[in-house]
Amino acid sequence: MDISNELADRLMRLVVSADYKPSKPKQIAALMNLDGDGYRELRRVVKQLVLEGRLVYGSNHLVFSTGSIGGPQDTVRGTFRRAMGGGFGFLRPNHSGDAGSDLVEDLFVPPGSTGGALEGDLVQAKVRPSRKGGNEAAVTEVLQRARRQFTGTFRLISGKPFVFLDGTPYEQPVSVGDVRGLPLENDDKVFVEMVEYPLDDGSGGEAVILERLGSSSNPAIDTLTIMRQYALPDEFPEAVLDDARKQADAFEDGVVPDGRKDLTKLLTITIDPFDARDFDDAISLEREENRWRLWVHIADVSHFVPIGGALDEEAKHRATSVYLPDRVIPMIPEIISNHLASLQPDKIRLVKTVEIEMLDDLTITHIEVHNAAIHSDMRLNYEQVDQFLAAPETFPEKWGEPVCDLLLRMHKLAMQMRKARFKRGALSMDMPEIKLEFDRSGKVKGAFRTENTESHQIIEEFMLAGNQAVATWLDGLGLGYLHRIHPSPERRKLRQLSMFCKDLGLKVDNVESRFEIQAVLDMVAGTPLEDAVNFAVLKSMNKAVYGPQTDGHYALDMEHYCHFTSPIRRYPDLTVHRLVQKLLDGVKTPDDPFTSLVKLGFHCSDMERNAAQAERDLIELKLLHFLKKHIGETMEAVISRVFADGIHARCIKLPVDGFVPITTLPDDKYRFERRGNILQGHKEGNRYRLGDLLTVRIAKVDLQDRQLYLEVIKNQTARGESKPLAKTSSSKPKYKAKRQAERRGKKKRKNR
Hints:
Layout: H1 3-15, H2 25-31, H3 36-51, E1 55-57, E2 63-65, E3 74-82, E4 89-93, E5 107-109, E6 122-129, E7 135-144, E8 149-157, E9 160-165, E10 174-175, E11 188-196, E12 206-215, H4 222-229, H5 238-250, E13 261-262, E14 269-272, E15 281-288, E16 291-299, H6 310-318, E17 322-324, E18 327-329, H7 334-340, E19 348-359, E20 364-375, E21 378-381, H8 382-390, H9 396-399, H10 401-424, E22 434-438, E23 444-449, H11 454-476, E24 483-485, H12 491-503, H13 514-524, H14 530-540, E25 545-547, H15 571-585, H16 594-627, E26 634-643, E27 646-651, E28 657-661, E29 671-673, E30 678-680, E31 687-689, E32 693-702, E33 707-715, H17 734-745
Parallel strand pairs: 13-20, 14-21
Antiparallel strand pairs: 1-2, 3-4, 3-6, 4-5, 6-7, 8-9, 8-11, 9-10, 11-12, 15-16, 16-19, 17-18, 19-20, 22-23, 24-25, 26-27, 26-32, 27-28, 29-30, 30-31, 32-33
Helix pairs in contact: 1-3, 4-16, 10-11, 12-14, 13-14
Enzyme class: hydrolase
Family: Belongs to the RNR ribonuclease family. RNase R subfamily.
EC number: 3.1.13.1
């Protein structure tokens, strides 16, 4: 038997075994202990077996045996994830909780094949070949619903009670039958439990009303509506609060416990948002001849949250704190998060400290993690530090020379670290956050976009350094734990990004490496195209997730990375702290089962995504309430997305997106040019392109569909440009565009 036949036999025995999970050739080579030459031969053998019909290539070149899970026409069970608009979704196979699951990809579920499944439902589906290559799935049965309770808007239709559900793709309402004498009026917000789910087309469906939340015209009801919609908890169970109180009673304030490194004499400060209530990180920094010594102090939450107790189980369930515009839903009760574990000034607090020694060229010469106690000397906020950096000579009298010198050292080192990080290929692609301003009654009076100023960058660099140092240490020991993973983007998506940038007229050849991507981001910074290009870059990237794989972080260009620096608000950080504690105590550290870590990683990733979406939706809802009082007013906006049925524009003064249906543009026959992102008319001046500066009027606010509609008063960019192109056969009849616009207007979020 020659080498190829022997390798083929070994390969077939592997892929038909019960333990095999669909894998790429590179992972298969690792499972078979093949060297570089063996891997190259394996790839040739796989291709030959595919041609012979004995193996099947799945999406992204996963290898299946013919008829195995993932093969054509096979049945698979998994968790359904619905996309935001478009009627499609993705299926995460339920064997993704098993060992090797990191090698299994989600299956695309096209429109019309979702079987009425909603976000998080456990479903059964048929796997079939996709016309675009690889496989896709069609849901055949919903086995278990992830949610039975929803918020919605109550309406009487022909004298019968119905509810339009929030956060679902259903355009038709569900019947609610008996309203139990509740004092309900049209457009009241209600909380319901489903009795019968609608079909895939949205027809049918029945629910029972559990609670009247209040009038939908009252902005105060927005937060409660979003909390119910995203199943965010109201209060902590009494058992959890009792557990937290016991921790508080046992804590001896003002002393350094035995066995902890006493760092209370080390000059230490915190820098946080001005309205922060929990302070989970602090910094110390000293200059020693030709080297730096950095201490990143992180609140030792693990000291107060024993494994397996009521506190721990609740924290694991929540997985993250949720930061809504008008309230915080903490992962851990405030008696711990805002008191015992919070690094408040002038108090001795317990920490896990990452001590990093580095040379002037930033070469790290020593990393050590301590169980320690600190005394924060001063609490500063970002605005104060930015003011200091603008005029440091004016602050010594107020803050003292030691604190001012510390801040100058921190600024110097952090900026050097930041410059070196981007030089190595890291990306800076975070979209600015929106902060709402409230009046005394709690109503929105305005909004602004946060800036990533140098004070923010100082803390960001030191937190990144702490996270990377801990991950490097733990990976060096070969231990299993939750990494923060950002997979490399697919080449296909990067090619699409390159084409998008060229279509915009940007002078780029390719946008496929980190350096090329960052060059494009720098090119559009501060221009009308900035948001659109940043969004396109984010869309081309995979999402960062939690998992036990050592796959590195693409955007940060870090091989070893985890989350360690926010255990007050993120459960993965807390699990890493516990592993560190075992190492510091010299306790045996058996690896957590891979399966358990995968499941925990999925849970934490999903809860993080749920929290982020809840925050975005609530900001949008509150802004819509605010804008409803300003219908008819004009403002400037920049075109941020272009579609065949209209355009999206981001308002400049108030950071909110609005939709301009093509039917409201000046009367003309428009055609959509995907290349260039243009709606092109035939009359002079009727051209709308990505990045154009517009004057718009607030035309309509639809609170049910959560959509702002704008009308274009003037295209300031296109005014005076050359005549539009001549009529072509590709011009879209306006009545077709109108139907598209009406359908798009019913979606609650637009391709975010």
